[in-house]
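Lecture 7 notes. Example A: sequence first, then its structure tokens.
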Amino acid sequence: MLRCRLKIFLYVSVFALAYGGVAFAQKTSSGNPYIFNTSTSTAPLELTVEDAVDFRNQILDLFGIPRDTPITITDFMVGNTKDIKLPQTGIPKIDMGPLQNLKLVVNETNLSPGRQVQAVIVSFSTNLGESTITWYHNGKRVLSGKGAVLYTFTLGADGASDSLRAAVTTDTGAYKEVSKTLRPAQIHFTWFTNTYTPEWYRGKALPAPGTEITIVAIPDFRLGKTRLDPSNLIYEWSLNDSSRENDPRVSGTGKNSFVLKLSTVVSASYKVGVRVKDLGERIESEESINVESTMPLVGIYPVDPLYGLTTWLSGLNYSLPAGETITLQAEPYYVPRKDILNLTYSWGINDKNISGNTARDNRLFRLSSETGSRGVQRIRVSFENQNNVFERGSGETRVNVIGNNQIGE
């Protein structure tokens, strides 16, 4: 089963909502609050805890600063970064002059059209909270003020571009501009797995423990009205946030598919991500999909002497007139196709195991009722791969034996 989930960071332990805005207090194992501080006159970003951690770490990585540096996301939002101390030396950072390391960072790596994006300017060599900052979006002045380090906007349509420019004047008169161009793009996913379903089944085969799933990225990258050829794009895959960028078997130009071998652990889950960019790095976007395995199961269907397997009668209950016989057939779902002939089936009725069933590969079960009998019989079946104990599943149905005096009621 595939599900969308929030990213979970194990070191986030506590969060609180306060003062009518979003104010969080979390601690890592070292005891330092690294996400938000809880006292600021500037409203912090409206982000989830997980997204705030992501954004903070993205900024630190951009500057090459260790992630265990005691700095909060709010410090970035109010421009309070000049006097941050490096944890490995314990001394203030060397003053490189005002605005020498000024950068413009956006919080989103998924740049799909219409998505809300928050941009922030960061400097570790000046106090941006005391600087006058003017923002320009597609050449138009949209925001200006003292300490206006944050600008929120909505991305345009496919093929469009969003040009951002921030002009900074410090309290000492130093001036610098930074800019960035974002091009909205979409990445869709499709996937398929190597598990078995009956040929008449119209649903999708699901990944079971120990099987493989192939995930295909389908990017929609446009420059104006021109759609870029997906085979000429660069794909950088990741698994559970661990990059496979340097693995040429997985990542590279035109490598738009990722094959994942699932663990034999039941309900194991995985996060598969991909970052896609064009050769000129004009367009870049990132997306992820969550994968979770599901247990194989068995469907039980009646076999009609004339029509054969009556799949249209599938259900949990069947009726059988007293004195007659019903034949049931087990159909497995979500087993690796290569193992379908290696399965052994076991049948039971009313909590009693039935032995000596010599029908073809044990998939068939015949129930005969005596004349005058009546009542519900619970039929169950299970299967197991003799070569792999992790491949197993079960199913159940009920057969209601109808007495002669009940027919037609």
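Example B, a different protein, same format:
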Amino acid sequence: MLILLVCVPVFGVASLGALHIIYDVRHVSFAVAPYYLLVARGITGLAILPRRVLIGLIAAYTTVSLRADYFIPYKQNYRDPMRILASESRPGDCLVLGVPQQASRVPVYWDAYYFGRTPPSPVDLNRVETAPCNRIWVPWEKGWTTSAGRYALVRQTLSTKYRRGPAWSFGGMDVDLYVPK
């Protein structure tokens, strides 16, 4: 029974990954109740003092963990920005990431939500003036781009050839579109 309770969720999550579906806790939430029963059974097998200490540690950890649920100012939302990018982008559009390519989650989420579709061509900020781009998309990942200096640099670089067009704001990410002057 224990092997089934562990292997089925792990196999399920691995299968979802193979299909380019981003892991979400709802994919394995069905395994929570049996898991808690197994943990409770293990705790009842302990002596009284270690059991009380363990339950106290669990309660303290749970109390500290509540901060993440109730006091973080925004939750990451990549689905809506990727939807805007996929529906509004045209051939010839380019993508300038507000962070270094290897730090951005945009390619990961594009692959997950729009597997098989070609994203706008990625362009390095240093080469944006010479790149053959009709329009420039700039996704701002709020977790990474808290530096006002980096944002000002991107805006200044793009302002020589482009003007800022529509902008969309979501939890965790903003999307700006720059169009030719």
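Note on Example B: DSSP finds six helices and five strands in the chain. Residues 2-70 form one domain.
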